[in-house]
Structures are given as structure tokens and as C-alpha cells.
Design goal:
It contains 10 helices and 13 strands. The chain is α+β, with helices and mostly antiparallel strands and 304 residues long. The longest helix has 16 residues.
Length: 304
Amino acid sequence: MDDLNQILPHLVDNGLPDGGEFLLADLADDERTASVIALLVWHGFLSMQGGGMLLPKIHKSRCILAPQDMHIGKKVRRRAKGFHLTVNQAWPVVVTSIQKYTFTRQQGDCWLSDTLADAYQAVGRLPPELRHGVLFHSIELWHSDSGELVAGEIGYTCGSVYSSCTGFAMKDKYSGSGAVQLAALGKWLVRCGFTMWDFGMELDYKRELGGHAVPRSEWARHVRTSRTRATLLRQPEGADADAHRLVREECSSPPLAPSQQVAPPEIDQFLSKAAGFIGRKGKKGVCSVGRSLPMPLPVGRVDI
């Protein structure tokens, strides 16, 4: 890990071997994989999966937003009535819902495999010296009357940066639920004291929220400045969880007290072992970031 810790900032600052955005690494259900993912996050990489491999991505440009500068439209504010937000309360359901509703080309090709989701969760069980303050989280938006999970995402925190990995929304049944989930989450990030929201690749809906693209060098500077600012993503309680109240809230509310922290729950049993992988090991494929739009994968092999 010490060698990798020295190599990664060099790659971020000087570019990957092929001039692209992806590295390749083995993906396994072990502590080493979790440790690699945590170290990659520490240096600004997003770890995805494809072709049975771990695909750490360092974007040439990254879409970011200061949560307090988020734009929320009137339609989203109206649609937020009757929903509430939770954090780390339904990881297994969020994962399976993403796998069901979010895909690149056809249903079932979601890059968030069981193996990768398990590795994300394992980061939270690492000793502090290997975790680097990184934690993965599930975000849930619920229809309050029915108790149905209507939208959600998997993301992670490192210092005062929250990064959205991938998510889902039941938009056919609950129109606009994805937008409500993002708006409520953005407001909650402000309440918790986060200074940056990382969206990954730039897409229209992220720009509508106020996100903007910055070059890799600026992204790296933000990460290195923010990663040591310990910030806790807490569970909203009571009226604070009401999505309509959150999205209408001004961004002047102070951060919550540390005593209100809720750590990600231990849910080791929820994932089954992956039965197989898409494609042949080492083969280039197609994956996506955020709510799953296709993109090619230029990859460079660095054994880690």
C-alpha cells in the first residue's frame, strides 16, 4: 500500500499511462480490495467495476457543486411533499434497486455488482490507518404514506466531500422522485457541514442542480484540501427527515451536533456472492457513472 500511496498522486498530477481515465485492478472479496478502494478515494479516484475487474476512474474533468449553491426548481419543491429522507437505513434494498432500475444498455448490466457493493461496505470495517476516513453510504427517499422506497443512491464521504456513485429512481410510478432525492440530499449535506458534492461525470441533470465541471488538477486540489476535514453524514431525525421541509429550507442552518452521528450499519449477509462477471478478465467494456449513461473505457493497467 505504501508504494501505491506514492504512485497514485503521480498519476493524478501527470496523467495515466494511456492518457485515459481508468486503471485496472483485481476485484475480490477481501480486506486488500477494500483497502485499495479507500486509498483510491483518498486520492480522488472513483472505483467502478467492469469485466470482472475493479476500474478506478480519475476523470479528466469532474462535475462538482458546493451544496449550499444548489439550484432547486419550483416543480421539485412541490413534488417533495409526502416523502422523507434517510441515511444508511436500507443499503441492501438500495443496491438491488440500482441493479434493477439502472443500467447502461440493457437491464442487468449495471456496473454496481454484488462483489463491488460488498467491497464498498467492507471499507467501513477497515482499521483507521487503512480506511483514511472513507465511508460508503446508502441514501434513501421514501414515500411516507406507503413506506415504499422510491429513490436512492450509493455514495461515499472523504473529509468534507460527499461523492455520488450511482442511484435509482422509480420515475414511472413517482414522477420526479429522483430529483426530489437529490434536492433533499443536497440540503442535508449542507446541514451536516459538507463543503463539496462530487457528481463524477458532467450530465444535464447535474448542471441543472448547479454542478459545473472542473479540470483534473482543480479536482485534485479540492480533494487534498478537503479530505482531512472530518465531516459526518448523519441520519436525519424527526421533522428533519421531511423532504418538503428540507428542499424549502434556507442554507443558513448550522451543522448538527456530532452526537447525532449514525454510522453505516453492519449488514454482511445481505449480498450473495457474484455468480460471474460480465466479459473476459482484462477485456475493455462499457460502463457508466451516475445514473448510467454509456461511455467507452480507455484503460491503463497498473497492478495494485
